[in-house]
Specification:
alpha+beta, 3 helices, globular
Length: 127
């Protein structure tokens, strides 16, 4: 693996939103796209229609690239507390967690830790 590939790998954070409505996924991904503009693999959370007035819940996945930073600008709000599992290199995970904490109330629960990768479950709530 080249040095460039290693740097890219260390800058990527996998984001999973389990049991999440499309509205909440759209809000979380909008914050992350704004904070990390080089994250083309983030969905917008709006590719499925809501059914019968009840928000449809599903599992959302995206990848954040922390190599560039933007100013967080987001007008979408979480409708209810949402869980997010994030994993990647310790520094990259910390950057994603800090970006989300700048916009939401965040409670973190470490899941798996190692030398090269960590996983954290975040509980996000609108301020």
């Amino acid at each position: 693996m080249s040095t460039e590939q290693m740097e890219e790998s260390a800058s990527l954070v996998e984001v999973e939103l389990p049991d999440c409505t499309s509205e909440n996924a759209a809000a979380v991904f909008a914050v992350l796209r704004s904070a990390f503009p080089r994250s083309p693999q983030l969905g917008n959370g709006q590719d499925k229609a809501e059914e019968g007035g009840e928000p449809k819940r599903k599992f959302w996945v995206g990848t954040v690239d922390v190599r560039t930073h933007g100013e967080v600008e987001c007008s979408l709000e979480l409708k209810e507390p949402t869980e997010a599992d994030i994993s990647g290199s310790p520094d990259a995970v910390r950057q994603v967690q800090e970006a989300l904490a700048g916009f939401y109330d965040v409670t973190a629960e470490p899941r798996i830790s190692g030398d090269q990768e960590v996983e954290v479950r975040l509980r996000l709530a609108q301020r």
